[in-house]
Amino acid sequence: AWLTRGNLKAFRIWLASTAIMGATFLAFQVYEFYEFANHGHLTPRTNLFGSTFFTLTGFHGAHVTLGVVWLLSILFHSFREGGVTPEKNLDVDLAALYWHFVDIVWIVIFTVVYLFGVFEGFPGTAPSAAVH
């Protein structure tokens, strides 16, 4: 929205903020993987929950990484003369669609893996059952 209004400074600020938040998400994912594997005794080989958890969150992390790289490339490109303008913004629109899709996928993954995994009634999926 800021780019179409011609406010390149606000566009850059929000684009950088989004990339920083994505990188922060990735840092938390790496920390979580490390903690589960080294202290929580949950690995992809532990059980079906471990395999599902690491596969889904790992692939999602890879897609977030791609999105962060894409956003940063647009940010750096915006500093070039004529690089990103209100008239020349197809890359921005495509990156925004991709980023929002990845957000929606995370809502589904979070619900299935983190929320359903802790409620009774989903046998074999609870993280507490996974560490035994």
Task: Describe the SSE topology.
Blueprint: H1 8-38, H2 48-77, H3 90-115, H4 127-130
**Reported CATH architecture:** Up-down Bundle
The helix fraction, in percent, is 55-70%
CATH topology: Four Helix Bundle (Hemerythrin (Met), subunit A)
Highest-level CATH class: Mainly Alpha
* Number of E strands: 0
> End-to-end span in angstroms?
50 Å
Q: Helix and strand string, N-terminal first?
A: HHHH
Structural class: mainly alpha
* Shape verdict: elongated
CATH superfamily: Cytochrome c oxidase, subunit III, four-helix bundle
- Which stretches are low in confidence, meaning pLDDT under 50 for 5 or more residues running? none
Count of discrete alpha- or pi-helical segments spanning 4 or more residues: 4
- What value does the average pLDDT take? 87
Strand content: under 5%
How many domains, as an integer? Answer: 1
Q: Characterize the biggest β-sheet.
A: none
Radius of gyration: 19 Å
Short description, anyone?
The protein has 132 residues and is mainly α. The chain has four helices and no strands.
Structural commentary:
The chain has 132 residues and is an all-alpha fold. It has one domain (8-130): Cytochrome c oxidase, subunit III, four-helix bundle (Four Helix Bundle (Hemerythrin (Met), subunit A), Up-down Bundle), CATH 1.20.120. 69% of the residues lie in helices and 0% in strands. It is built from 4 helices and no strands. It has helices at 8-38, 48-77, 90-115, 127-130. Helix 1 runs antiparallel to helix 2 and helix 2 runs antiparallel to helix 3. The longest helix is centred in the N-terminal third of the chain and has 31 residues, at 8-38. The protein is elongated, with a radius of gyration of 19 Å. The model has no long low-confidence stretch (mean pLDDT 87).
